[in-house]
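Structure in, sequence out. Go:
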């Protein structure tokens, strides 16, 4: 009978250990993301060369112009792809894999509608110290897109965020290109930032490092090269509690990875909440670390 109980205890222990290991390995699992249909809302509104010139001449009189920059349509599409593929936990499907081959839990398909690619100019006339008339033109590029994210397996819409990028540049009138390209880059960054918040990297504080009096200055976390950690990554520190069967998180501080020291370990500088973090470590509290970049 004792042997039976010992055997059952061993089986249960192994099952719990395996489950914990599986959860640990799965916590920062990467997913596939595929760009589906992309439309430009103003695709059929392209102006002729004569109409564009007329728009600019009108702007010369008023000091302001607003022109849909349709020639950047392909650049915006590429920026959306860059934004999707730069996220911590998503790998962009570049077409080498058919959609039917990636219908696994967590994989996403993104459809996009580019709603705005606009170049704006605002001119100001002024007198210099020699009483000569000068003209300063400020350019603003605005790029906006609505992205619909769907579960690759079920087709269910999981999110429908709208992204906007804007770029400013002051130069000669012919250099509005820089402002638009700045806006395109910002749009790409916004998409990456959103995906990183939607599906962040997670880690645990495994050991306190440097401390001063009652404040934690450095800590070690179990996140390293193998799961995408990099120097400069900012992470929030949360106390995790279970309330009525539900997990509740409360942020108590922020970290910045100072050095990635292995496949599953990084040293972090405590940027805020050092006192609370040290108290939680000393009390044996469960601390969860989540990327916020």
């Amino acid at each position: 009978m004792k042997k039976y109980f010992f055997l059952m205890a061993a089986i249960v222990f192994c099952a719990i250990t395996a489950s914990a290991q599986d959860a640990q390995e799965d916590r920062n699992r990467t997913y596939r993301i595929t760009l589906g249909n992309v439309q430009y809302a103003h695709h059929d509104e392209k102006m002729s060369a004569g109409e564009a010139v007329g728009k600019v001449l009108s702007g010369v009189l008023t000091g302001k112009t607003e022109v849909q920059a349709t020639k950047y349509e392909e650049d915006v599409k590429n920026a959306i792809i860059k934004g999707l593929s730069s996220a911590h936990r998503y790998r962009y499907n570049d077409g080498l894999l058919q959609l039917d081959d990636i219908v696994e839990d967590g994989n996403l398909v993104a459809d996009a509608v580019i709603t705005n690619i606009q170049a704006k100019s605002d001119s100001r006339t002024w007198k210099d110290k020699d009483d000569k008339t000068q003209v300063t033109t400020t350019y603003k590029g605005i790029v906006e897109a609505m992205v619909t994210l769907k579960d690759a397996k079920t087709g269910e819409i999981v999110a429908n965020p709208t992204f906007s990028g804007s770029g400013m540049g002051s130069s000669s009138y012919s250099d509005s290109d820089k402002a638009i390209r700045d806006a395109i880059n910002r749009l790409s960054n916004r998409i990456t930032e959103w995906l990183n918040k939607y599906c962040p990297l997670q880690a645990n504080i495994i050991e306190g490092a440097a401390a001063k009096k009652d404040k934690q200055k450095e800590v070690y976390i179990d996140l390293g090269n193998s799961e995408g950690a990099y120097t400069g990554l900012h992470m929030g520190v949360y106390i995790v509690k279970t309330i009525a069967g539900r997990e509740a998180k409360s942020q108590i501080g922020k970290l910045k990875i100072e050095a990635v020291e292995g496949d599953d370990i990084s040293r972090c500088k405590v940027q805020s909440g050092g006192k609370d973090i040290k108290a939680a470590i000393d009390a044996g509290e469960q601390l969860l670390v989540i990327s916020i970049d």
